[in-house]
Request: fold
Amino acid sequence: AQSVTQPDIHITVSEGASLELRCNYSYGATPYLFWYVQSPGQGLQLLLKYFSGDTLVQGIKGFEAEFKRSQSSFNLRKPSVHWSDAAEYFCAVGSDSNYQLIWGAGTKLIIKP
Amino acid sequence: DTGVSQNPRHKITKRGQNVTFRCDPISEHNRLYWYRQTLGQGPEFLTYFQNEAQLEKSRLLSDRFSAERPKGSFSTLEIQRTEQGDSAMYLCASSLTVPQDGGYTFGSGTRLTVV
Reply:
């Protein structure tokens, strides 16, 4: 079955510290991978996406993610978080033969001052 | 282009009433998607359009739900005889036929509360 797992429901990080949010997927086809961010009561903003090519992807707001096919992972990283990064982060997977995205349950990021 | 626009932002309705939401996608995007998101969960796919044609509906989309995209531009999602379990955020997204070209752009959603 197709699925996306974000093992951490919430993560607390001090401002200025580094961040890594985990995403693992189970998908039959070659995956397209996405990270979105959602602030409370808001829609989803695309942080970055991977379709093919370089497995290290740069996104907006200083985020990057690395696609590791052997581990079925697409972890999101940021070297130094800011208080404004506090939000919920969603990983999603799709493909060129599947128009719908499969989503993880999200990881809520809490920033300690 | 200002992105994907959804209206209303919030809707409170009594159980049993009908509600309709609107989505205006990015103008050059020919694919339009509806998702539903409940608290603490990721979005779940509801339905998708390629231009005006509704090509797929999830089993989540019961007979009380109907979606249209009459001219291949904006779309509406109607829920008839609302139930408390319909309370959720309804998200609309759009993309080009080849989503590699720009990915999927989401609107800010419509928050439905059924009381």
Chain B has no helices and eleven strands.
